[in-house]
Specification:
The protein is of the alpha+beta class and about 375 residues long. The chain is about 35% helix and about 15% strand. Bound molecules: arginine (ARG). Arginine (ARG) binds next to β14 and α6.
Length: about 375
């Protein structure tokens, strides 16, 4: 999603609030309250330059933002989102602790539930809270003489953490600390306690050797680098999570050449001829890697969905939205699974990629990190 202006004039802010309140209250059957609420918001903006969302506005606004997320294939469950209101967190430590609570609540013993934790929004153009992490659980990436150890996507954040005195163990799977910034203060680093971390060791339903690859992945993806915008208010820290689609791990994180690049190792164990593309060794390795992900998560009782099932669920979402008289917007390139895409109905469809609000938007990465990225030539 493209950046939308992060600062609105008072007039623009009111216009955004007006559109949101009308839509939100209509969906909730609270039409009779609209005009009073809008008067109140107009007063608040006049007096303070901004306004506060009520608990139900925040909750329904966040659900609408998920429903409007064009790149998300998991939207059938948008009404099941739980919103944790953490707008009262003041210090970096409080924010970190709320993030750990998020991890535990979202994990829910393996029966993962969609959750969003919302921190203080931007006030008068000043960002109050920002998480430097891409996700609340992610593995470090270390530049070494023999290449990158760990997740190449995290080299910049890892080096920043090291520059702040953090030392990882240097394995391929070291959980990065939370990096929390309050306003324009220097960010604080917090090690993620074991009680907040969940991981699945990968093994294969048939091949015993698979375990020897020593692969694992964390259980809950909690995206923490996007801004949630509701009714013109910018929630610059609003980590959210669902459960994994197996291909995110098996066909991207562990398979991409610029990530863990595991296809050659898997193919070699399978005894495939990797010298010739026409043996389809990459395809076969992909399938087995993905079977291992699904099998291991299932055996450990951690919720995960395969790319066929999630696409069927998305078709039901499209039907339900049509029945509710709403247009589904989507970004086809992202909705298509990264393997076997033509076996899914998304392949035949076109999607309108208009960005509706409320929604989640990318933010510019902290300058310190983008400078590091540039120096790496990426
Ligand atoms: N693709 C990201 C990852 O591999 C996660 C994005 C959100 N995914 C989700 N299933 N909610 O970590």
């Amino acid at each position: 999603m493209h950046e939308s202006p992060s600062e609105y004039s008072r007039r623009e802010l009111y216009a955004e609030a007006d559109a949101f309140v009308r839509e939100c209250y209509s969906e909730l059957g609270r039409e009779s309250e609209i005009e009073d609420r809008l008067d109140e918001i107009a007063d608040e903006i006049e007096r303070r330059g901004h306004y506060d969302h009520t608990a139900f506005e925040l909750e329904h606004g966040a659900k609408m933002a998920w429903r409007n997320s064009n790149r998300c294939i998991g939207r059938l469950f948008w009404q099941q989102l739980t919103v944790a209101d953490a707008r009262d967190c003041e210090t970096a430590r409080e924010v970190h602790e709320a993030c750990c609570t998020h991890l535990e609540r979202a994990r829910n013993g393996g029966n993962i539930k969609p959750l969003l934790t919302v921190f203080k929004p931007m006030i008068d153009g000043d960002r109050q809270v920002r998480l430097w992490n891409y996700e609340l659980l992610r593995y470090a990436g270390y530049r070494t003489a023999d290449g990158i150890v760990g997740d190449p996507d995290e080299v910049e954040l890892t080096e920043y953490c090291q520059s702040r005195g953090w030392e990882g163990e240097g394995t391929r799977f070291d959980i990065l600390p939370h990096v929390v910034q309050i306003r324009d203060q220097e960010p604080e680093l917090f090690e993620v306690p074991e009680s907040a971390v969940g991981e699945v060791r990968l093994r294969h339903p048939e091949y015993a050797w698979f375990e020897d690859l020593g692969l694992r992945w964390y259980d809950v993806p909690v995206v923490s680098n996007m801004r949630l915008e509701i009714g013109g208010i910018h929630y610059t820290a609003a980590p959210f999570s669902g459960w994994y689609v197996s291909t995110e791990i098996g066909a991207r994180n562990l398979a991409d050449e610029d990530r863990y690049d595991m296809l050659p190792a898997v193919a070699e164990k399978l005894g495939l001829d990797t010298g010739d593309d026409r043996t389809l060794w990459k395809d076969e390795a992909l399938v087995e890697l993905n079977r291992a992900v699904l099998h291991s998560f299932a055996e450990d009782g951690v919720q995960i969905v395969d790319h066929h099932t999630v696409t069927d669920q998305f078709e039901r979402f499209e039907e339900k939205e049509a029945a509710a008289g709403r247009e589904v917007t989507g970004d086809r390139a992202w909705l298509l699974p990264p393997m076997s895409s033509a076996t899914t109905h998304v392949f035949e469809n076109d999607y309108d990629n208009t960005v509706k609000k409320p929604n989640f938007f990318y933010r510019n990465p902290p300058a310190t990190l983008s400078e590091r990225r540039e120096s790496l030539g990426r």
